[in-house]
Design a protein that fits this description.
Elements: H1 14-27, H2 30-44, H3 48-60, H4 64-77, H5 82-95, H6 98-111, H7 116-128, H8 132-145, H9 150-158, H10 166-175
Helix pairs in contact: 1-2, 1-3, 2-3, 3-4, 4-5, 5-6, 5-7, 6-7, 7-8, 8-9
Length: 176
């Protein structure tokens, strides 16, 4: 596709609109950000990034179901996009779609099994649904990747009444 076929009346390309969307988002103008991302999608809906940007703005606006649909579209376009998978898992979790959330976290782990953000997210999900052993294992795995990840350590400490965390306590004391 040549650049001239990727323009609207304003003369901006999909990439231009995408960049404007992130700039508007950065300065807090979510209305203009929504418009810019939608224009980018209109010109290049086959690209995952504008769908992801639109989803982030919709999420910030509290339009969680719409954001979830945009994230799903982003993943259809680019199935190995870790950021979109993680955001979709979090969206499912926040909306109460527990099975969908777990499935997306697992897909994200297939993309990057060492992602501390994904490991922490699935740990939180397991903790929320009353699976403390699974949560502890996810937090432990996150700590193996980055022991300075205080959120995972704190969450693991919170599970101490349910699971044995003596090894992690010894490691934490060694760092002090």
């Amino acid at each position: 596709m040549n650049d001239s076929s990727n323009r609207v009346q304003s003369g901006l390309t999909a990439k231009d609109w995408f960049e404007h969307g992130y700039e508007y988002k950065r300065i807090g103008d979510l209305t203009c950000a929504l418009d810019a991302f939608r224009r980018s999608i209109k010109l290049a809906g086959h690209v995952a990034a504008p769908w992801l940007g639109l989803a982030q703005v919709l999420d910030a606006n509290g339009q969680f179901e719409d954001a979830r649909q945009c994230l799903a579209q982003s993943i259809l376009v680019e199935p190995n996009n870790l950021a979109a998978r993680l955001q979709l898992a979090n969206a499912h979790k926040n909306l109460g779609y527990v099975e969908d959330a777990e499935q997306e976290y697992r897909c994200a782990l297939k993309i990057n099994p060492k992602s501390t953000a994904v490991l922490f997210g699935i740990g939180q999900l397991f903790e929320d649904i009353g699976r403390p052993s699974d949560a502890a294992n996810a937090y432990r795995e996150a700590l193996k990747q980055d022991f300075s990840m205080t959120e995972a350590l704190s969450s693991l400490l919170g599970l101490s009444r349910h699971v044995d965390i003596s090894n992690e306590l010894v490691q934490a004391q060694a760092l002090l």
